[in-house]
Design a protein that fits this description.
The chain is of the alpha+beta class. Helices cover 31% and strands 22% of the residues. The strands form six sheets. It has a five-stranded antiparallel β-sheet. Strand 6 and strand 7 form a beta hairpin. The longest helix has 19 residues.
């Protein structure tokens, strides 16, 4: 049973269906694309009692919790208490994503390299922290914000206004030093003790080409990253993932599931930007497109404490590119209810598939029975290719076939990487500055 409504869940389900050990997959609540391949159930994935009731009804052998909101709501706890193996951390462990201040505290205790940061609960504290770090300013809502609670700006007034909005909503903010250098997403599977990294990916947060415009939940991603230095993944495992998992276990709140490490490759070396407690979206769409190792067994082993650190994952040799098609006016108030055409034509392209996110089937009206937009990020076109150039070409050919009025997409997903234009900063030999939580 997979809980969640989006593109991440659609990608997970596609991978589970490709596992010969998996007999059935069900999803709650799902979306129009998921409903085309597995049974879906109109159950609130954020409701622990409802999710547990459905698991009992289905006799689920494994429950995979997709989004962050059910994890923070304690859905995984309720399912475990009812005796179900769950891939996803407890509410206490999910605080690594649910509270950025808590994540900083854990990183400090575990000796994990990260940006210097200060927690602010008043405008005066925020102003003092902003002036202390200087521009560019980085202000993060301390709670869950679906990837859109971060403002990075050279405008002090804009940074202070974002902090004030968070305070007005009853929250606090984490203000950090700005980290230079390209960003990397690395998913690490863990059973609370052992860790297995997946293939690194890079996503694109801003709405417009050239990383312009406001932050979104992610407008595209690609993997692998040909520009990463040798040994990068091993370094992340040894300096970030394993110490964090060890620290969470030491605290009596073992982390079981996937630890999403959001990283920056800076002139001072590897730094953690943030942790998430679930697979990232849209990186999952690209990463799982390349995974050749059966996913169901991996997730079950993680859920039941049987991950084998020595296991070597198998990957398809191709590159994968995922391009998100978003609704008009996203990331503001997206326009919904518009019919989507061209999906079958895009799916018919070689090594291309469409992953649904914000889609539904119109129940009535002029578009009754058709797939329509139902969210900000509507779908992703995912393509495999012999290299990034071919994967990009195939993905964008698919995007051009998708018909959605007012839709928007970036045209530069993986472009710099395909041209060898990703610049890595020169690592300084000077002693690193002291990080603080």
């Amino acid at each position: 049973m997979v809980l969640g409504p989006g593109g991440r869940e659609h990608a997970i389900i596609r991978a589970l269906l490709a596992d010969p050990e998996v007999e059935q997959v069900h999803c709650a609540p799902g979306n129009a694309g998921i409903a085309q391949i597995v049974p879906v159930h109109a159950v609130d994935a954020n409701d622990p009692a409802a999710a547990t009731g459905l698991a009992r009804e289905l006799g689920a052998d494994l429950v995979v919790v997709g989004p962050e909101a059910p994890l923070v709501a304690g859905v995984a706890d309720a399912l475990r208490e009812a005796g179900f193996p769950v891939f996803g951390p407890s509410r206490a462990a999910a605080r690594l994503e649910g509270s950025k201040a808590f994540a900083k505290e854990v990183m400090a205790a575990a000796g994990v390299p990260t940006a210097m940061a200060r927690v602010a609960t008043t405008e005066a504290e925020a102003a003092d922290a902003l002036d202390g770090f200087g521009a560019p300013y980085v202000v993060k809502d301390d709670g869950l914000a679906a990837g859109k609670g971060v403002v990075v700006t050279a405008d002090r007034a804009e940074a202070l206004a974002h902090a004030a909005a968070c305070f007005a909503a009853g929250g606090s903010v984490v203000i950090e030093e700005y980290l230079d250098g390209p960003e990397v997403s690395l998913f690490v599977l863990t059973d609370g003790t052992r860790v297995i990294p997946l293939s690194p990916a890079q996503d694109f947060k801003r709405i417009f080409d050239g990383d312009e415009g406001p932050n979104t939940g992610g407008m595209g991603a690609y993997t692998p990253l040909p520009w990463l230095p040798d040994g990068f993944v091993d370094e992340v495992v040894e300096r970030v993932a394993r110490p964090t998992v060890d620290e969470m276990r030491r605290r009596g709140t073992p982390f079981v599931g996937v630890l999403y490490c959001g990283l920056a490759v800076t002139r001072r070396g590897l730094r953690v930007i943030e942790f998430n407690a679930r697979f990232g979206d849209p990186e999952t769409q690209a990463v799982l497109a390349r995974l050749a190792t059966p996913l169901g067994r991996l997730l079950l082993d993680a859920a039941t404490g049987r991950l084998d650190e020595a296991e070597r994952l198998r990957w398809r040799p191709e590159s994968a590119v995922a391009v998100v098609v978003a609704a008009q006016d996203y990331p503001g108030t997206p326009r919904t209810g518009d019919p989507i055409g061209g999906l079958e034509a895009a799916e018919a392209l070689e090594d291309v598939h469409v992953v649904h996110a914000g889609t539904a089937v119109a129940p009535d009206g002029e578009h009754a029975g058709r797939v329509v937009s139902a969210g900000g990020r509507v779908l992703a076109v995912v393509a495999l290719g012999a290299g990034l150039d071919q994967a990009r070409e195939r993905a964008y050919r698919g995007v051009e076939l998708v018909a959605l009025e007012g839709s928007q997409h970036r045209t530069d997903i993986a472009l710099k990487a395909s041209r060898g234009q990703v610049d890595l900063p020169t690592v300084s030999n000077s002693a690193p500055r002291q990080e603080q939580a």
